[in-house]
Automatic annotation (TrEMBL):
Pfam families in alphabetical order: YjdM, Zn_Ribbon_YjdM
Domain of life: Bacteria
Entry protein name: Alkylphosphonate utilization protein
Family assignment from sequence similarity: Belongs to the YjdM family.
InterPro entries hit by this protein: YjdM, YjdM_C, YjdM_N
Protein YjdM N-terminal domain boundaries: 5-32
Protein YjdM C-terminal domain location: 50-119
Amino acid sequence: MLENLPPCPKCSCEYTYEMNALVVCPECGHEWVPAESGAAGEGGAGEQVIKDSVGNVLQDGDTVVVVKALKVKGSPSGIKAGTKVRGIRLVDGVDGHDIDCKIDGFGAMQLKSSVVKKA
């Protein structure tokens, strides 16, 4: 239990209370997850965790291995399973493509985290 609960970020009410992992304001009904550290920045709550095909958490700069053969538009041969990709960047991509990378022989492209595993 938190001893000193933070005031409501919406209405500044001081009578907040804990309910499971959330802090709740009784006046306006706002619910939020309390920040672990003292700085409760705006961007901290929106962070998402991206995991590979076997559940390992990925980070920028990681090296990953493609786990299944991928077809590439405009290329007679696709990306083979076992291809190593170095220095990935995690992005908020389109259609689940959340990894931005460069692959030798193909150039810059985006991959889905579900088709790679951490090396």
